[in-house]
């Protein structure tokens, strides 16, 4: 019997293009080749779909040269209707078939991939895919919407103010007053970006304008969040089996010792001043409470695919900071670390995600 074909989709038009490529490198390395036939599909920064090399090392993270999808002249031709799953490629030698696709694994971070756009495209073609659907992806991508949905579901979230450029232009004084009511320090973030791109920590109010400009360069909507003094705790969530409750991993902790916060360099370039500890040192009751809140947050947002839930833990209460519907799979990423510490190997985790997508589509 032929192996099921998995199209690994990565790169993309967002500012997280290189992180998506690095994540794909991890997946390409770990996916079970005895079980699946793999088709690597890269999306260039301009949005062209190309047939990429099946070489995980090509997409390794390197501080001197971040990985990316280059336009190699090939073009992926998607099925021409929902009645077909045949994938084709066109290159200098003409057009040829890559066979039928059984599932798409969209390893895409940020806008135009993690926000429901690629999910909608795959839905139109009736192609099964790994991860959250259109609505949950859109909710998880937009930090303001995530917080609003979670708050309405009774999940504790960090206090915040959402502001647009037009708001500041109309009545800057009133908006600055609302922002200042959060107290110092605050974090300023683009509403729809990840990997700490465009994020600043403001410790003095004269730093606010520069932080807003940096965030507005990524998105027209920006969040200003109250800084919570506490530990940074994260966990992975997967849907329950056969209608059961969501499965939540053990906790991991981000220990920041020599940096202002867990920024891009620390997350992906192994910069000093940050340690990822997994499992985190939590009492049984604390771990159970974190897992309860993580499962509640996951279900409130849609309960599909997978998620990494990020918390601030004050020692008395867990506040959900973010919910990420396509977390990183790089070798130093927390999501796989948490599941590995929970007893699941990296290849088993990837197989679990693929088989869940196939079962949901059956």
What does this protein structure show overall?
This protein is of the alpha+beta class. The chain folds into 3 domains: 5-129, 3-Layer(aba) Sandwich (Rossmann fold); 140-156 and 229-361, ATP-grasp fold, B domain (D-amino Acid Aminotransferase, Chain A, domain 1), CATH 3.30.470.20; 160-226, ATP-grasp fold, A domain (Dna Ligase, domain 1), CATH 3.30.1490. The chain has 10 helices and 17 strands. It has helices at 17-30, 117-124, 134-141, 143-152, 165-180, 208-216, 264-268, 284-301, 334-341, 346-361; strands spanning 5-11, 37-43, 49-51, 75-77, 86-91, 94-100, 103-107, 160-164, 186-190, 200-202, 221-226, 231-238, 247-248, 252-256, 274-277, 307-313, 318-324. The strands form 4 sheets. Strands 12, 13, 14, 15, 16 and 17 form a 6-stranded antiparallel beta sheet that branches. The longest helix has 18 residues, at 284-301. The model has no long low-confidence stretch (mean pLDDT 92).
Concise account of the structure shown:
By secondary structure, the protein is an alpha+beta fold.
SSE arrangement:
Blueprint: E1 5-11, H1 17-30, E2 37-43, E3 49-51, E4 75-77, E5 86-91, E6 94-100, E7 103-107, H2 117-124, H3 134-141, H4 143-152, E8 160-164, H5 165-180, E9 186-190, E10 200-202, H6 208-216, E11 221-226, E12 231-238, E13 247-248, E14 252-256, H7 264-268, E15 274-277, H8 284-301, E16 307-313, E17 318-324, H9 334-341, H10 346-361
Parallel strand pairs: 1-2, 1-7
Antiparallel strand pairs: 2-3, 4-5, 5-6, 8-11, 9-10, 9-11, 12-13, 12-14, 12-16, 14-15, 16-17
């Amino acid at each position: 019997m032929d192996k099921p074909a998995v199209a690994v989709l990565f790169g993309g038009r967002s500012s997280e293009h290189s992180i998506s490529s690095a994540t794909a490198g991890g997946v390409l390395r770990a996916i079970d080749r005895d079980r699946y036939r793999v088709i690597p599909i890269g999306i260039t920064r301009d949005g062209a779909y190309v047939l990429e090399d099946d070489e995980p090392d090509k997409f390794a993270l390197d501080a001197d040269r971040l990985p990316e999808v280059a336009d190699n002249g090939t073009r992926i031709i998607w099925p021409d209707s929902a009645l077909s799953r045949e994938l084709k490629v066109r290159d200098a030698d003409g057009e040829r078939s890559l066979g039928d696709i059984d599932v798409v694994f969209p390893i895409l971070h940020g806008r135009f991939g993690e926000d429901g756009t690629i999910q909608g495209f795959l839905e139109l073609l009736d192609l099964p895919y790994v991860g959250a659907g259109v609505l949950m992806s859109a909710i998880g991508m937009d930090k303001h919407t995530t917080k609003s949905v979670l708050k309405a579901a009774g999940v504790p979230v960090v206090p915040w103010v959402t502001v647009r450029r037009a708001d500041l232009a109309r009545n800057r004084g009133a908006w600055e007053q609302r922002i200042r009511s959060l107290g110092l320090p605050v974090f300023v973030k683009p509403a729809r970006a990840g990997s700490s791109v465009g994020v600043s920590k403001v410790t003095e109010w004269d730093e606010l304008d520069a932080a807003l400009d940096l965030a507005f360069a990524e998105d027209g909507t920006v969040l200003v969040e109250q800084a919570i003094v506490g530990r940074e705790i994260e966990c992975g969530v997967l849907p329950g089996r056969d209608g059961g409750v969501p499965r939540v991993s053990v906790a991991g902790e981000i220990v920041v010792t020599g940096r202002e916060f867990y920024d891009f360099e620390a997350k992906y370039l192994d910069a000093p001043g940050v340690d990822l500890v997994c499992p985190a040192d939590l009492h049984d009751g604390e771990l159970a409470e974190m897992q309860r809140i993580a499962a509640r947050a996951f279900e409130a947002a849609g309960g599909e695919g997978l998620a990494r839930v990020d918390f601030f833990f004050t020692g008395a209460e867990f506040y959900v900071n973010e919910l990420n519907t396509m977390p990183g799979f790089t070798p130093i990423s927390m999501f796989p670390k948490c599941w590995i510490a929970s007893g699941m190997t990296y290849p088993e985790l990837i197989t679990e995600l693929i088989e869940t997508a196939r079962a949901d589509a059956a």
